[in-house]
Write a structure and sequence with these properties.
Strand content: 15-25%
Largest sheet: 6 strands, mixed
Strand order of the largest sheet: 6-7-8-3-9-10
Radius of gyration: 19 Å
Shape: globular
Helix content: 25-40%
Oligomer: single chain
Structural class: alpha/beta
Bound molecules: adenosine-5'-triphosphate, magnesium ion
Distance between the termini: 33 Å
CATH superfamily: P-loop containing nucleotide triphosphate hydrolases
CATH topology: Rossmann fold
CATH architecture: 3-Layer(aba) Sandwich
Length: 302
């Protein structure tokens, strides 16, 4: 787990408004191949801004004022992400690093079918791929996220929130990226659907080996699913450790306060989502979720 896939060094991002907002301050972070790195912190601490910075999606008035972002490609090539532009940047995004963003379930295009949207990603990034292969890949992607391929002909409004979110995840998986950045990917969903989707992400990660930057202010959830957790406060990372250490021996006063603010966080670190089985006291696993776990097709609940 020591091989890095994405390295950020000294990243600072400002919103050039009046007054200037220093949203991200000198953040350094190494994401390892296949790991799940949780990014926690209160609303407004800069999580989304940092994620946009990593993928070069910042728009004015946001400016990356300093820092280095390097992607370490599977073949051994290092890509300087901050230097990419135009076609190179478009080719990099989705292909190497994909994103599922806050409120993503509302970002499906309402006027074209799911099939057309997936096809669009494939034709743009895999121009040589024959039509039949694209059709097969689209169906396969929906199956990956446990949505029936018959849904390819649906429009966004015909899908539940959970299904829309699964479709967004399928699209993010379309090109087999090495990194997925997920910013509150399940926050808008109820707990049962959320857990079903998280379990799916864990399973896919195991199978496909991508690394995940998982952003949320739900610290108990991060403790369950992450390998390591970074805690962000006012634009800076104040603590970064394994989920275990962070939970058992939080060093920074802010991390301690954050942990204390979740009264349910007593007892053992739950690994319900990760394994699908409750081990000892479980963090926030409702009884009804056991039923969801026993149902192979989660679509009905999503
Ligand atoms: N377009 C903008 N113009 C000016 N300031 C902005 C803009 N977008 C975000 N900010 C500010 O940047 C800081 C970081 O915001 P950001 O959205 O990155 O936080 P976050 O940690 O993702 O919060 P949340 O948990 O609510 O999603 C906040 O102070 C926010 O007000
Ligand atoms: Mg955010």
């Amino acid at each position: 787990m020591s091989e890095p896939v994405l390295t950020a060094r000294g990243v600072s991002i400002e919103y050039r408004t009046a007054p200037v907002v220093r949203a991200v301050r000198d953040v350094s972070l190494t994401l390892h191949r296949g790991e799940i790195l949780g990014l926690a912190g209160e609303s407004g601490c800069g999580k989304t801004t940092f994620a946009y910075g990593l993928t070069r999606l910042l728009k004015p008035p946001a400016v990356l004022t300093s820092g280095e972002i390097v992607f370490h490609d599977r073949g051994g090539e290092d890509i300087d992400v901050t230097a990419l532009d135009g076609d190179a940047l478009r080719a990099f995004r989705w292909d190497k690093v994909s994103m599922v963003f806050q409120g993503a379930m509302n970002s499906l295009n309402p006027v074209i079918t799911v099939r057309a949207q997936i096809d669009d990603v494939l034709t743009t990034h895999r121009p040589g791929m024959p039509r039949a292969e694209r059709a097969e890949r689209a169906a396969e992607l929906l199956r990956l996220v446990d949505v029936d391929p018959s849904r390819l002909d649906s429009y966004a409004h015909q899908l539940s929130g959970g299904m829309r979110q699964r479709v967004m995840i399928a699209m993010a998986l379309a090109l087999e990226p090495q990194v997925m950045i997920m910013d509150e990917p399940t926050t808008a969903l109820d707990v049962v659907v959320q857990r079903g989707i998280l379990r799916e992400i864990m399973r896919l990660r195991e199978r496909l080996g991508f690394a995940v930057v998982f952003i949320t202010h739900d610290l108990p959830l991060l403790i369950e699913i992450s390998d390591r957790i970074a805690v962000m406060l006012e634009g800076a990372i104040v603590e970064l450790d394994t989920a275990e250490n962070l939970y058992e021996r939080p060093q920074h006063a802010y991390t301690q306060r954050l942990l204390e603010s979740f009264p349910s966080l007593t007892g053992e670190r739950g690994d319900f989502v990760r394994t699908g089985e409750a081990a000892g006291p479980v963090v926030r696993a409702p009884a009804s979720d056991d039923q969801a776990a026993a149902t192979p097709a989660l679509e009905g609940t999503a």
